[in-house]
Specification:
Elements (H helix, E strand, L loop, with lengths): L3 E6 L13 H18 L5 E3 L5 E3 L2 E8 L8 E8 L6 E10 L5 E11 L1 E3 L6 E2 L4 H11 L2
Length: about 140
């Protein structure tokens, strides 16, 4: 699986009473990987705008299957592969692998993100993806 890879180690604080990573923390790992991936493409998950507004990538869809446990002190990686972008949305599939890139599949799924903007005194609204992002996706992934 190509794409972007994020590596980390499980902290004891991320585990539950059974000594395994709680599923919600797996999704937090994916979100950290997403932030690093967007940063590698020259974007931020959230951008404050002058005057109090903001622009960013709220999540609008999630699918996830959990396959095996990860425990404290274990290395893992999150692999992200972009899906075909829409006019104002960006999707990606993910895999979380215990032990690194050749490790056991711990979770897999996909996210869909809207690209949205909230200006002062207005409701949040979707906006077109930046041309720079689309160019980066084409260059890096052929999307």
């Amino acid at each position: 699986m190509g794409g972007f890879t994020y590596r980390a180690t499980v902290s004891f604080a991320d585990t539950d009473a059974a000594g395994i990573v709680h599923f919600s923390n797996i999704l937090r790992y994916v979100e950290r990987a997403e932030a690093a991936w967007l940063h590698s493409l020259g974007l931020a998950q959230f951008e404050a705008l002058p005057g109090g507004g903001f622009r960013g990538f709220p999540k609008v869809n999630l699918h996830s299957d959990f396959r095996c446990a990860i425990g404290p002190g274990e290395d893992f990686c999150v692999q992200i592969v972009p899906l075909e972008p829409g006019r104002s949305s960006l999707g990606y599939s993910f895999r979380v692998l215990r032990g690194g890139e050749e490790g056991a599949l711990a979770a897999e799924g996909s996210f869909r993100l809207a690209y949205a903007e909230k200006l002062p005194g207005q409701h949040m609204r979707s906006i077109p993806l930046p041309a720079s992002l689309l160019a980066s996706l084409r260059k890096e992934y052929g999307k």
